[in-house]
From TrEMBL:
Entries under PANTHER family matching the protein: METHYLTRANSFERASE, UBIQUINONE BIOSYNTHESIS O-METHYLTRANSFERASE, MITOCHONDRIAL
Protein name: Ubiquinone biosynthesis O-methyltransferase
Annotated keywords: Methyltransferase, S-adenosyl-L-methionine, Transferase, Ubiquinone biosynthesis
UniProt KW Iron keyword: no
Primary gene name: ubiG
Gene Ontology MF annotations: 2-polyprenyl-6-hydroxyphenol methylase activity; 3-demethylubiquinol 3-O-methyltransferase activity; polyprenyldihydroxybenzoate methyltransferase activity
Length: 236
């Protein structure tokens, strides 16, 4: 892999090892299955509907979001650099009959090949896993058609987020594998908003995601203290 690709090999290795459990709602990816429905509802609202939209899922992993976008009527492509995760996504698509396109390609490279090609670009739970998140954000902006929608999600950087996401989820309740998150890579909303604006995007709104580990349910919330989504628009 080229040294100038915006990727942490350790992160790719970690997600490769978890590939087999992507579609097990009782496994390591269980929380992701719980938060996906409210994420999709928010994305659908931001995009003004998904039917007929050309959508891109950046950092798609095993395709949980990508398939959900297709199920809502979008023509969706998922990209990732973890080959094992992409294989799982492709196999699950064959089993489910939900047809999405998957590619092993960096967002930056796809932006060079297909600039301004997608009505909707989603980059969820990924920015906190790359060395240069601002670079990924810029690529997402380049990939979006003028007037198109971009939705990011990540984790806020503050003591509450550390306590819930790392101490609670990884070490106390063992909801996700230890070492999944690095607190130093968490991103404050002000930082994400600044990078989005520097990439030429308009910040429209933000919404938090609240996860209940006991009930294994999730919902949208007004507080963005921990997990949050940011809705951006590329000026027409």
């Amino acid at each position: 892999m080229s040294s100038n690709v915006n990727v942490d090999p350790g992160e790719i290795s970690r997600f490769e090892k978890m590939a087999a459990t992507w579609w097990d709602p009782r496994g390591e990816m269980g929380p992701l299955h719980s938060i996906n429905p409210p994420r999709v509802r928010y994305i659908e609202q931001c995009a003004g509907g998904l039917k007929g939209k050309k959508a891109l899922d950046v950092g798609c992993g095993g395709g949980i979001l990508t398939e959900a976008l297709v199920a809502k009527g979008a023509d969706a492509t998922g990209i990732d650099l973890a080959e094992a995760s992409l294989e799982v996504a492709k196999l699950h698509g064959l089993e489910s009959g939900i047809k999405a396109n998957y590619q092993n390609i960096p967002a930056e490279e796809l932006a060079r090949q297909q600039p301004e090609s997608f009505d909707l670009v989603c980059c969820l739970e990924m920015l906190e896993h790359v060395p240069a998140p601002a670079q990924t954000i810029k690529a997402c902006a380049q990939l979006t058609v003028p007037g198109g929608t971009v939705v990011f999600s990540t984790i806020n950087r503050n003591p509450k987020a550390y306590a819930l996401t790392i101490l609670g989820a990884e070490y106390v309740m063992n909801l996700i594998p230890r070492g999944t998150h690095d607190y130093a890579k968490f991103i404050r909303p002000s930082e994400l908003a600044q990078w989005a604006r520097e990439a030429g995007l308009e910040v429209v709104a933000m919404k938090g995601i609240r996860y209940n580990p006991l009930l294994k349910t999730a919902s949208l919330a007004d507080d963005v203290d921990v997990n949050y989504l940011m809705h951006c628009r590329k000026p027409a």
